[in-house]
Amino acid sequence: MNDHLMSTYARLPVSFERGQGVWLWDTQGRRHLDALSGIAVCGLGHAHPAVTRAVCEQTARLIHTSNLYGIDAQERAAERLCRVAGMDAAFFCNSGAEANEAAIKLARLFGHQRGIQSPTVVVMENSFHGRTLATLTATGNRKVQAGFEPLVHGFSRAPYNDLAALEAIAHNSNEVVAVLVEPIQGEGGIRIPDPGHLSAIRRLCEAHGWLMITDEIQTGMGRTGAWFACQHEQVMPDVITVAKALGNGVPIGACLARGPAAQVFGPGSHGSTFGGNPLACHTAETVIGVIEAEGLCEQAAAMGSRLLDGLRDRLGGLSGVQDIRGLGLMIGIELERPCGELVSRALNEGLLINVTAGNVIRLLPPLIITEGEADTLLETLHRVLATYLGESPPASRET
Questions:
Q1: What does the CA dihedral 343, 345, 349, 355 come to, rounded to 10 degrees?
Q2: Which residues are catalytic?
Q3: CA 384 to CA 379: how far, in whole Å?
Q4: Residues 166-224 pLDDT 10s
Q5: CA 291, CA 222: separation in Å to the nearest integer?
Q6: Which candidate, 253, 216, 285, 324, places its Cα nearest to that of 73?
Q7: Is 43 exposed, middle or buried (0-12, 13-18, 19+ CB in 10 A)?
């Protein structure tokens, strides 16, 4: 451990020095299959040649000038991103939390412009939207909020996938201006709403003049088999937030808007020093181009189906497996007991996974994963999980 780093992470005992495709090599020379993609960031895998060229070329040409001036790469990235998202305008920033901060500010300003004195954004239980104060408040997890009070006012919380709760809020409040929802809850345990739920939220928002904001930080950029998860129901939100895979590791986020929502911000109402710089935007433009050219949304859908079928075939009969669910290459395996130690066990077998919500194995492999690599993932995970579930669970402690 480095004494000069703040201890904000419980890091695994491994460090990686290079990558290629879905593979990472640690400092001891061991190869690992990356089924996490840097938490849904490296959708094109590691060291993708087009991304490497884009970064090198743009770094040699121009990295930063600031938003005081026009930025050609930013304009091109905005056009391409808005086209695949069906949005009208983009604000570029540096992370998912910043993209959600922009969306929350946009919603509040939208409300004030309509005479609402205390605009309220409806958010969901077990959601995750970031770690800044506003996005931390929007996040539906008391563990990550604890110790950072006072939290930010202006949020109302509802259970995820519960339309009746949203309708009750609509009936009882005149200050709601927006609903902020993840199309699939990632940190919350790969929770997928009922078919038609997002469409029902869209109709509710239209009926009450609310903005519908979808947090696609983790689900966006082809992860679920479509550019954005809301597109599986042909839902058009007013605002979409995106980050993670947009830069394939180069930090960039964006708040996208359409219709009246795209006209809310004006000069001086929001900004970013680094956001939308030439390096990040040229990289994002390249990432979008690669996803289009290589048909990676379709590949994510196909490989996701292959993995889900394989997981259900191999793991479905194991005692202790409660559910296997997913969409595209966003997959969760829910166990009947906490399973955080599986991360270390899989690491020892050369597989990088994650456990979220305490008992859900989260798989987020790169969109470029091949059939052979998907089969390797299945074989390794089956071996690790079968061994783990074959052991007696640790005795619970008396309190």
A1: -20
A2: 128, 215, 244
A3: 9
A4: 999 999 889 999 999 999 999 999 999 999 999 999 999 999 999 999 999 999 999 99
A5: 8
A6: 285
A7: buried
Contacts of 343 (CB under 8 A, 6+ apart): 12, 353, 354, 355
Task: Give the separation between CA 74 and CA 90, rounded to whole angstroms.
Answer: 9
Tell me the three state secondary structure of residue 50: helix
- Strands 120-124 and 176-181, by their bridges, are parallel
Task: Please name which of 70, 59, 80 lies closest in space to residue 279, comparing C-alpha atoms.
Answer: 59
Where along the chain do its domains lie?
A: 16-48+295-390, 49-293
In the chain, pLDDT over 70 holds for what percent of residues?
98
| Dihedral of the alpha carbons of 29, 5, 278, 85, in degrees to the nearest 10 | 80
Enter the tokens of residue 137: 């408040």
Across the chain, what does the average pLDDT equal? 96
| pLDDT score for 2 | 73
β partners of residue 215: 241
Partners of residue 356 on adjacent β-strands: 360
Question: Which residue stretches of 140-234 are H helix?
Answer: 142-145, 163-172, 197-208
At 314, the amino acid letter reads R
pTM of the model: 0.96
Domain 49-293 listed as CATH 3.40.190.10: no
Q: Which CATH superfamily is domain 16-48+295-390 in?
A: Aspartate Aminotransferase, domain 1 (3.90.1150.10)
Report the distance separating Cα 173 and Cα 116, nearest Å: 11
Query: What 8-state DSSP symbol labels residue 5?
Result: S
Summarised one tens digit per residue, pLDDT across range 372-399 is 999 999 999 999 999 999 876 665 444 3
Res. 344: pLDDT tops 60: yes
54-63 per-position pLDDT tens digit: 999 999 999 9
